[in-house]
Design brief:
By secondary structure, this protein is mainly beta. It contains ten helices and 56 strands. The longest helix is centred in the C-terminal third of the chain and has 32 residues. The radius of gyration is 73 Å and the shape is rod-shaped. The termini are far apart.
C-alpha cells in the first residue's frame, strides 16, 4: 500500500499517462490519508480529469446553481455532511472547472474544527473568500463579487472514512442595471416632469434604463399597482417602456408613479419615482345668503366660497356682463378660497344677475360660476311727460292739458301725488282738475296754470319726485300795473318816463302809446318810446297845458292784442295830499307808534314827516322823516308830559296839510317826592305849611266856585269860537315859537261836533264840577252813562277825564285811548291849561 502510495505521489510524473492515471485515480480514495498533500491530490485530480479517466464520475456529480450580484456578497454551497455519524470531513477543496486551478482549501486533518488550516489562491478569490463550515450546508462566502467570478466551480469534500464527495456549483454573476430615467414622451424633456399636470390630460411618459446582465425588465407601477410591463430591449443595450396614462384626475394627486428596472431578486430593483402634481379645477362655487332683499344705494358685503381648486382659484365678480374690479378681497386656505365683495346695488340692478366666477387659469375649461338674481328695493323712479298729442309751445288759455307720470319702483308705489311748483294739487273736478291712476288732466287752463309740474311717488323705500315739466299757457298781454289809472304829476318842459309793464306769453311783439287831450286821441310816435321784453318806456315832455291828459299803452303778441290798456293820467305837478287814517299807539312806558296811509303824491316823489311837540312849551322833541311809508316810531318820551304830533307829506312843490294828534298825560304823584325836592323841610313844618295851603285853597275854591256859578247862570250860552281849540288857558295863550318853513294846517272847527250839554241834575249837584267839553263826556261815557260820572266827586271826575288821552285827527274828530294814568286833583288844578276842549266856554260847579 505504501508502494502504491509512493507511486501515486512520487512516480506519477514518470509513468506513462494511462498507467499513472489508472494507478493514481483508482488508488486515490484509498490513499488520501496516507500522506499526500493537497497540492498533490489536486494535481492528481487534474491529471485524471485531463485524460478523461474520471468521465463516468463527472456525469453523476450533482450541480447547484448559484447567482451573485456584482459588488455584493455571494455564497457557494458545499455539502460537507458525512454519511455516518462517526465520520467527518477532513478537507474541502475548491477549484474552477474552466482552468482547474485550485482556489480555496479547508483542511482540518490533525486539527480541531475550531482551528482549520485555510488556504486561498491569491490569483483566485484571495482574501475575498471565507469558508463557513458550521453552516448547513457549508458555504464559501465571497465578498465584492465581480463579473470575473462567473463560472462552474467544483467543491470536493474528503472524509476521514467515507469516499470523496464532489459537488458542482454553477455560479452566475449578475450585473444590475443603471437607475432608470423618465422623460416626457412628446418633448423628451426631463425638466417637464417638475411642472404639474392639468386635470384631465393624458400622461405620455418614457422610462429608459441602460446596462444590466442579464437584460433587466422595466415595469411601471402606480403606487403598488402594476400598470404597464410592456418594455422593449433595444440593440443598443437600452431597455425602454413607453407609458400612456389617459385622463389623470383628482384621485391621482400626489400619487407615486414608479418606473422599476430589475434583473435579479438578490438586489433591490432600480427605480425612478415621479410624484404626480396636478392642477385641479375648482369643484364648487357658492354665493352665500342669496335669499335676502337688497335696498338700493346701501352698501353690502357679499361672500362667495369656492373649493377644490389647485392651486387656489381666481374668483371674479360680474354684474351681468360688467366685471366688478377692485371691489372684492380674496382669502385662501388649504382647499378653499373665500371672496368678499363690497357691493352697492342700484335701482337698475333689480332683476339683474350677480355672478361669482371661480377659475383655475392653468386648467383649460375650468370656469364654474354661481348666479344670484338680484331683488333690489329702490325709491320710485318717476318720469313725467306731457300728453303725446300736445305741443308744449302752442298751449293757450282755454285748452285742455294732461300729463302722464311713468313710475318704476320695487316694491310697487303705494301713493302718487302731483305738484305745481311746490304746492300739491288736489283732485277738483268742478275746477277742471282731474287726477287718475297715473295722469293729471287740466281742463280749460288759464294763465295761472303756468308753472313747473311734477309727480311724486312713494313706497316703503321712500319718496322721489319726477323731472319737472314746464307748462307755459300763452295769453294776450294784460297790464301789469294797478287797475286804477295812475296819476302822475309833471312840470312843464319836464322830461318824464312812463313805464308800461305787461304780462303776456309770449312776449309782446309790438307796443302802442296814445294820448287823449280832452277827447282828441292821437298816437305817440315810436321814436318816443323803447321796448324791452314785456316793458316799454315812454320818454315824454309836456310843453303846454294841452300836453297833459290821459296816456294809454297797449301791447300785442301772437295770441292777440291787449284788451284793457295801461292808463296814466298826466297832470300838472302839485303839493301832495294829506295823510289818511293816522293811528296812534303807545308802546311801553316811553314810546309811540304812528301809522298812516299815504295820499296822492302830487305827481312828484314825496317824503313823510312827523314832528313831536311838547305841551305847553311846544318845544320840538322829535322830527322824523320817512322816505318810504308814513309809519313812525318815537322812543324816549316822558310819559308825564303831553305832546302834539304833526304829520304831513312833502314833495318838491310843497307840503300837505297837517294831520295833528294829541296825547295828554298827568304827572304821577311819585314824581314829586324824593330827596331831590328843593324844599326839603322838616316833617312838622311841612305838615303845617300843607294844612295852611289846603285851607287857603279851599277858601279860594269856594269863593271862585260861587262867583262862577252866579256868573254862568246870568249869561246865556254862546257858541264856541270856530278858531279856538283850547280854553283861555290852553296852548293858544302861550308864547309861540318861530313857525316852521312849511304852511300851517288850517284851523278845524270842532264846535259843530261837540256841544256843551249839562243835565239839570248836574246843575243841582254841588259836588260835581262840570267842565264843558262839548260831547267830551258823552264820548267818554260810551260804555258808562253820564249818570255814573255825576255820582263822582271832583277829583274822581278829573281822574276819569285826564286818564284818557285825546287824539284829534284831520277831520276834527276826537278819540280817547285809555292809558291807565291817574292824577291828583291838585295836579289837575295846577295844569288846567293842558285840558283839550272843543269850546272856549267852561262851566264849573257852584258851591
Amino acid at each position: 500500500m505504501k508502494y502504491a502510495s509512493m507511486i501515486a505521489c512520487n512516480t506519477t510524473p514518470q509513468l506513462s499517462p494511462p498507467i499513472a492515471t489508472r494507478v493514481s485515480c483508482e488508488g486515490l480514495p484509498r490513499f488520501i490519508s496516507d500522506g499526500c498533500s493537497p497540492p498533490d491530490i489536486l494535481m492528481i485530480i487534474q491529471i485524471c480529469l485531463r485524460f478523461k479517466l474520471f468521465s463516468f464520475f463527472v456525469h453523476i456529480v450533482p450541480t447547484a446553481h448559484v447567482a451573485g450580484v456584482v459588488g455584493k456578497k455571494a455564497a457557494l454551497p458545499c455539502d460537507t455532511q458525512p454519511l455516518s455519524s462517526d465520520d467527518g470531513a477532513a478537507m474541502v477543496l475548491w477549484f474552477k472547472e474552466a482552468d482547474w486551478e485550485p482556489l480555496y482549501s479547508y483542511d482540518i486533518r490533525g486539527r480541531t474544527p475550531n482551528q482549520p488550516k485555510l488556504w486561498s489562491s491569491p490569483t483566485g478569490f484571495g482574501s475575498r473568500a471565507y469558508f463557513r463550515a458550521t453552516a448547513v450546508p457549508a458555504i464559501l462566502l465571497l465578498d465584492n463579487v465581480s463579473t470575473a467570478d462567473t463560472g462552474i466551480y467544483r467543491c470536493r469534500v474528503d472524509f476521514r472514512n467515507s469516499p470523496t464527495r464532489n459537488l458542482r456549483v454553477n455560479f452566475t454573476v449578475i450585473t444590475p442595471p443603471n437607475r432608470p430615467i423618465i422623460m416626457d414622451a412628446r418633448t423628451r424633456d426631463y425638466t417637464r416632469l417638475l411642472e404639474p399636470y392639468d386635470e384631465g390630460t393624458t400622461l405620455e411618459l418614457v422610462c429608459e434604463v441602460r446596462g444590466g446582465d442579464p437584460r433587466p425588465s422595466l415595469i411601471w407601477y402606480l403606487e403598488n399597482t402594476l400598470i404597464d410591463d410592456s418594455f422593449e430591449l433595444r440593440e443598443d443595450g437600452v431597455t425602454v417602456n413607453n407609458l400612456t396614462f389617459p385622463s389623470i384626475g383628482r384621485q391621482h394627486l400626489n400619487s407615486r408613479l414608479i418606473c422599476q428596472a430589475s434583473n435579479t431578486n438578490l438586489a433591490p430593483p432600480q427605480t425612478k419615482l415621479l410624484i404626480l402634481d396636478i392642477n385641479l379645477r375648482p369643484l364648487t362655487v357658492q354665493i352665500m345668503n342669496k335669499n335676502r332683499v337688497l335696498s338700493a344705494d346701501r352698501s353690502y358685503e357679499v361672500e362667495c366660497k369656492t373649493t377644490g381648486s389647485r392651486p387656489e382659484a381666481q374668483v371674479n365678480w360680474w354684474k351681468g356682463f360688467k366685471p366688478l374690479r377692485k371691489k372684492a378681497k380674496n382669502f385662501s386656505d388649504t382647499n378653499s378660497t373665500t371672496s368678499i365683495l363690497t357691493f352697492v346695488p342700484e335701482a337698475e340692478d333689480h332683476d339683474n344677475q350677480l355672478i361669482c366666477r371661480a377659475e383655475n387659469s392653468r386648467v383649460a375649461n375650468s370656469v364654474i360660476e354661481d348666479t344670484w338674481q338680484l331683488n333690489v328695493h329702490y325709491v320710485p323712479i318717476a318720469t313725467l311727460k306731457m300728453g303725446s298729442n300736445l305741443n308744449p309751445n302752442h298751449i293757450k288759455e282755454g285748452d285742455d292739458v294732461y300729463f302722464e307720470c311713468n313710475v318704476q319702483s320695487n316694491p310697487k308705489a303705494n301713493r302718487l301725488a302731483w305738484y305745481k311748483d311746490s304746492q300739491e294739487i288736489q283732485h277738483n273736478a268742478s275746477s277742471g282738475i282731474i287726477l287718475s291712476d297715473q295722469s293729471l288732466v287740466l281742463q280749460s287752463v288759464n294763465r295761472t296754470a303756468s308753472g313747473d309740474y311734477s309727480c311724486l311717488a312713494h313706497n316703503s323705500e321712500g319718496s322721489a319726485s319726477s323731472n319737472p315739466v314746464s307748462l307755459q299757457v300763452r295769453y294776450a298781454p294784460s297790464c301789469n300795473l294797478p287797475e286804477d289809472a295812475q296819476v302822475l304829476g309833471a312840470l312843464k318842459k319836464e322830461l318824464i318816463e312812463l313805464l308800461c309793464a305787461v304780462d303776456s306769453n309770449p312776449e309782446p311783439s309790438n307796443f302802442e302809446w296814445t294820448i287823449n287831450r280832452s277827447g282828441d286821441i292821437s298816437e305817440i310816435p315810436p321814436s318816443l318810446y323803447t321796448v324791452k321784453g314785456q316793458t316799454s318806456v315812454l320818454s315824454y315832455t309836456p310843453l303846454e297845458d294841452r300836453d297833459f291828459g290821459t296816456i294809454t299803452c297797449s301791447a300785442t303778441n301772437s295770441v292777440g292784442k291787449q284788451e284793457t290798456p295801461c292808463v296814466y293820467n298826466l297832470v300838472a305837478a302839485g303839493r301832495p295830499t294829506s295823510l289818511q287814517n293816522c293811528t296812534l299807539i303807545e308802546q311801553g312806558t316811553d314810546g309811540l307808534h304812528v301809522d298812516c296811509i299815504e295820499g296822492f303824491d302830487g305827481g312828484l316823489p314825496q317824503v313823510f314827516i312827523l314832528e313831536v311837540l311838547e305841551l305847553p312849551s311846544k318845544s320840538v322833541q322829535a322830527n322824523i322823516t320817512s322816505n318810504f311809508t308814513p309809519s313812525f316810531e318815537v322812543l324816549g318820551l316822558d310819559r308825564a308830559m303831553s305832546y302834539v304830533l304833526n304829520l304831513y307829506a312833502a314833495n318838491a312843490k310843497g307840503r300837505s296839510e297837517l294831520v295833528t294828534l294829541y296825547t295828554i298825560a298827568v304827572r304821577s304823584p311819585d314824581k314829586y317826592t324824593g330827596a331831590n325836592n328843593p324844599f326839603n323841610l322838616s316833617p312838622m313844618i311841612a305838615s303845617l305849611v300843607a294844612i295852611l295851603a289846603l285851607l287857603s285853597a279851599v277858601v279860594c275854591a269856594i269863593i271862585i266856585a260861587v262867583y262862577r256859578c252866579h256868573f254862568i247862570r246870568r249869561h246865556v250860552k254862546q257858541p264856541p269860537s270856530t278858531n279856538a281849540l283850547y280854553t283861555d288857558d290852553s296852548v293858544e295863550s302861550f308864547a309861540k315859537k318861530d313857525p316852521p318853513t312849511y304852511t300851517a294846517s288850517p284851523k278845524i272847527d270842532y264846535s259843530s261836533q261837540y256841544e256843551l250839554k249839562m243835565d239839570s241834575e248836574m246843575d243841582d249837584d254841588p259836588d260835581i264840577i262840570p267842565v264843558q267839553f262839548g260831547e267830551f263826556y258823552n264820548f267818554i261815557a260810551d260804555k258808562k252813562p253820564i249818570d255814573e260820572y255825576s255820582k263822582l266827586g271832583n277829583e274822581d271826575v278829573n281822574k276819569k277825564v285826564y286818564s284818557e288821552p285825546i287824539i284829534v285827527t284831520k277831520n276834527g274828530s276826537i278819540s280817547f285811548v285809555n292809558r291807565g294814568v291817574t292824577a291828583r286833583s291838585v295836579d289837575i288844578s295846577a295844569s288846567r291849561h293842558e285840558v283839550v276842549t272843543a269850546s272856549r266856554r267852561v262851566r264849573e260847579s257852584c258851591i
